[in-house]
Amino acid sequence: MAETTKTATLTIDGQAFELPIHSPTAGPDVIDIRKLYGQAGVFTYDPGFTSTASCDSTITFIDGDKGELLHRGYPIDQLASKSHYLEVCFLLLYGYLPSADELEKFENLVTRHTMIHEQMHYFFRGFRRDAHPMATMVGVVGAMSAFYHDSTDINDQHQREVASIRLIAKMPTIAAMAYKYHIGQPFVYPRNDLDYASNFLHMCFAVPAEEYQVNPILARAMDRIFTLHADHEQNASTSTVRLASSSGANPFACIAAGIACLWGPAHGGANQACLEMLREIGTVDRIPEYIARAKDKNDPFRLMGFGHRVYKNFDPRAKVMKESADEVLALLGIENNPTLQVAKELERIALEDPYFVEKKLYPNVDFYSGIILDAMGFPTSMFTPIFALARTVGWISQWKEQLADPQLKIGRPRQLYLGEASRDYVDIEKR
Ligand code: CMC
Fold it and tell me: What residues are in contact with ligand 1 under a 6 Å CB criterion?
């Protein structure tokens, strides 16, 4: 628990209650209200958790005003340019940058767990071919608890570790299989001679009929997409994983819950929604119409890929993603792609428009990731599964951190009840 430096006084009907204030390593002070109900008999009200810290954590820190994202203290731009995804996974899971020897062992361990139980292939075949790959992933990851019984005991430290490695290692295989099943192609088995990102690209794009060479620049861009999505502190899907886990649920069930939450268009589903929006806009001359709709209070339309609950400045992940998009599109020679032109012009207009400037609505990570994934050849339905694959390490790290907390309690929010007061049941003939 953080240092307790000050107290806040809350006065209700003339009676004062002292509340401790904890000072974090970084970020705003936190008023501790855990004893408030017991002492004062009142709840606090904060739908959407806009002012509520749901846990303490040492993994990731975001300064939304500065546009800063740190994993275990290291800035995301440094990790994206100097590190790579599996090293970031190690950092998130264990809290420090590995030695060369530790990294090699970790990479080897993950690589040796990439195959899934052969029986799971039949499980995939139970889905309709036109199932969205996210629907398949929610089902298959949840079903891992039926295949890997020896890593579901959350009270066993070794089993927790095995489950963590299994999830990080098998998620690319599951995502690629969901894709292959969706498009009617045969599954491609993982290859241990390829790095994490290249292996994923190979499983998605190779076919048994011909040789497929992974382009190293695309593999690097894929790895960077994974790195930029690895963790993002207490967002909706991570909080879902923590809440599910607080009841003692097994790790595969918890991660399936996280995937389900991520799917929504306000969260991870925004990358798919954003590219579909850019395509719907179609040409630069139609942008003003969409900007007007985004500002119209009576229209539910929002500019997908813009805005963030925490970032009130440029999303630092979006900056790196934008550079990566330029690199990939130049490599593939598609800088003049009409979708990209709409994206660039939309970004320019939105960054100058007073509505977006005043509300501090900047492009977020999902604005650029879809452009890269599209250029790589992924259909929009695969964008969110790729986010889920990459975020698995964040969910797992937060899950492990929560289980190691001796103060862990089941998550159980209270409510402001506005329904009917107690009343007597009325017999049907008297209604
Ligand atoms: N387009 C138009 N107006 C917007 C947008 C947008 N994308 N985002 C927020 N606003 C307006 C909103 O209408 C509100 O206006 P007012 O104050 O007049 O009522 C104001 O900005 C604040 O918005 P909010 O909904 O209270 O903010 P929030 O923190 O609850 O929501 C958000 C954050 C990300 C859900 C929201 O900005 C949004 O829906 N963005 C589009 C979806 C998106 O790109 N999501 C990906 C987020 S980043 C990756 C991830 O987390 O998964």
Answer: 235, 266-268, 270, 294, 302-309, 359, 361, 364-366
Query: Which amino acid type is present at position 372?
Result: I
H or E element in which residue 11 lies: strand 3-12
Cα angle vertex 25, ends 24, 31, to 5°? Answer: 5
Confidence of residue 331 (pLDDT cuts 50, 70, 90): confident
Which tokens in the block code for residue 356?
């977006």
DSSP conformation class of 202: H
Residue 360's SS3 state is: coil
> CB count, 10 Å around CB of 307?
21
pLDDT band at 407; cut points 50, 70, 90: confident
> What is the model's pTM?
0.94
* Cα(401)–Cα(404) distance, integer angstroms: 5
Q: How many residues does the chain have?
A: 431
Question: Which residues touch 80 (CB under 8 Å, ≥6 apart)?
Answer: 224, 227, 228, 320
In the reported structure, the alpha carbon of residue 349 is separated from the centroid of ligand 1 by a whole-number distance in angstroms of 17
- Sorted by sequence, the CB contacts under 8 Å of residue 190 that are 6+ apart come out as 114, 115, 172, 173, 199, 203
The whole-number pLDDT of residue 142 equals 96
How many other C-beta atoms lie within 10 A of the C-beta of residue 250?
21
Angle of helix 196-205 relative to helix 100-111, nearest 10 degrees, comes to 20
3-state secondary structure of 20: strand
Q: Is the pLDDT of residue 137 over 90?
A: yes
The residue type of 143 is A
- What is the Cα–Cα distance from 1 to 186, expressed in whole angstroms? 51
For ligand 1, atom 17, the nearest C-alpha belongs to 359
Give the percent of the chain with pLDDT over 90: 89
> How far does residue 298's CA lie from ligand 1's centre (Å)?
15
